[in-house]
Write a structure and sequence with these properties.
mainly beta; 6-stranded antiparallel β-sheet; disordered N terminus; single chain; TAT_signal; Immunoglobulin-like; signal; 9-stranded antiparallel β-sheet
């Protein structure tokens, strides 16, 4: 397993762990040993449909297999963004129902894409009036339809093919509607929507880093909300001290406050909007030391706590899932190699651990990354200031899903153990052999 670290301008440390997954190996009498790690790359899916020819054809409904694929222009949108969806039917179940050849550019397709997971509903898609000539009683050609939807919920949103209709405009207007027999159809694409976040650019500066009790320190703030009341207060670790005042920002979000510092416990100064400290609406702490005169014949002893780093390690770099039988398919299960996160920074920022995965490739082609799901779990070591929240159970996806996280707070940090149960949905009749995908974990 390779660990890679880069430094962003914001001085956040970003760690990437690559987990190689050896999986779906032939076992004994043709069973498949399955892997760990899967993504949300778009994949073609088959589903049973019932197509009803127009009455003029005087033929019964046709039940058959439709092959289709859904793609999107934004696999990782933010909530509120518009996603363009393309629904391509590569193999329609229906065919030209009449003993008459159809000329080019007389077919107009329309349909629905079904949303699931974090967001429900349907997306209306339509296609252009464009097709090659279709022989009498010949198969309809492949066609594509497009539409849009707005991501309204954060999380993994699945997209499955829905009902579709083939409209012909030649001599007369005819429709051939095709419905999904066992809805919903298999998931063909997954997008992972993330919440809209605004970076906190508020800053805080002091004109002095120390002073005697009762000395006033000039606290300068910038990039706060304009014309808003701000609390400027002393801090002793995670607690606020008695040194406090309020100011109102100017039209550009700046202020200059003269805070009188009396409390010997004050070791820093913060400023925030609202009734209580909020890391998203505050700045600091800026270090400040109250110099208390030492009594005669005494010595002042000082100790410093040095902040550390945000880092992660994992117990191994390969996962072997359970086997599945050729012809039956089903869930190949296993467990993620345990990840240990250490947050020794000692500041107000939390962290997020996310994962994304590639398709599983092997002798029979590939198994879509969207077929891998996980059930995350996270435990904080006793005494850790932060509480750890496990991510939501569901598809991992190539767009990324959250494995675990901790929130921002007054004082964050600790040591955390992160695990996840893994399940790869192996399609029936997947060719025997070894299939492997790569799961990438990113800590930021």
């Amino acid at each position: 397993m390779a660990l890679t670290r880069s430094r962003a301008a914001s001085r956040r440390r970003r760690w990437t762990a690559v987990l190689g997954v050896a999986a779906l190996a032939v076992a004994g009498g043709g069973a498949l040993a399955a892997p760990a790690g899967a993504a949300t790359a778009s994949q073609a899916v088959d589903f049973q449909t019932r197509c009803v020819p127009p009455p003029i054809a005087n033929i019964p409904p046709i039940e058959g297999t439709t092959t289709a694929q859904i793609t999107v222009d934004k696999p990782s949108p933010k909530v509120g963004e518009t996603v363009t969806v393309t629904y391509t039917v590569t193999k329609p179940a229906a065919s030209n129902p009449v003993d008459l050849a159809l000329p080019a550019d007389i077919l107009t397709p329309s349909g629905k894409v079904v949303l699931g997971g974090a967001q429900s509903g349907t997306v209306t898609v339509t296609g252009p009036k464009k097709n090659p000539p279709v022989p009498a009683k010949g198969s309809f050609p492949a066609f594509s339809m497009t539409g849009t939807f707005t991501a309204t919920e954060a999380g993994s949103i699945t997209l499955s093919p829905g009902d579709y209709n083939i409209h012909t405009s030649y001599l007369m207007e005819l429709d051939t509607p095709c419905t999904v027999l066992n809805p919903p159809a298999p998931v063909s694409e997954t997008v992972v929507a993330s919440p809209v976040t605004s970076p906190n650019t508020r800053t805080l500066q002091l004109d002095n880093a120390s002073g005697d009790p009762g000395v006033r320190v000039t606290v300068t703030g910038s990039k706060f909300t304009p014309l808003t009341e701000v609390t400027v207060v002393g801090r002793a670790g995670a607690a606020e001290t008695a040194d406090r005042m309020t100011v109102t920002t100017d039209s550009e979000g700046g202020f200059a406050a003269r805070l009188k510092v009396n409390d010997p416990a004050t070791t820093g100064i913060v400023a925030y909007e609202g009734a209580a400290w909020d890391a998203e609406k505050g700045a600091g702490p800026a270090a400040y030391k109250v110099i208390v005169p030492a009594p005669p014949n005494s010595q002042t002893i000082t100790a410093a706590v040095t902040p550390g780093e945000l880092s992660m390690t994992q117990a191994g770099d390969a996962v072997q899932l359970s086997s599945v039988d050729f012809g039956a398919g089903g869930a190949a299960t296993g467990a993620l190699q345990t990840v240990t996160v250490k947050d020794f920074r000692g500041g107000p920022a939390g962290w997020s651990l996310t994962g994304k995965v590639t398709d599983f490739t092997g002798p029979g082609g590939s198994i879509g990354a969207g077929n891998l799901s996980w059930t995350p779990a996270c435990t904080a070591k006793a005494g850790s200031p932060s509480a750890c929240a496990a991510g939501s159970a569901g598809p991992v996806g190539s767009g990324g899903a959250t494995l675990a996280s901790t929130p921002n707070g007054t004082l964050t940090g600790g040591e955390f153990t992160v695990d996840a149960g893994l399940s790869l949905d192996v399609p029936a009749f997947t060719a025997p052999g070894s299939y492997a995908g790569v799961l990438t974990l990113t800590l930021s």
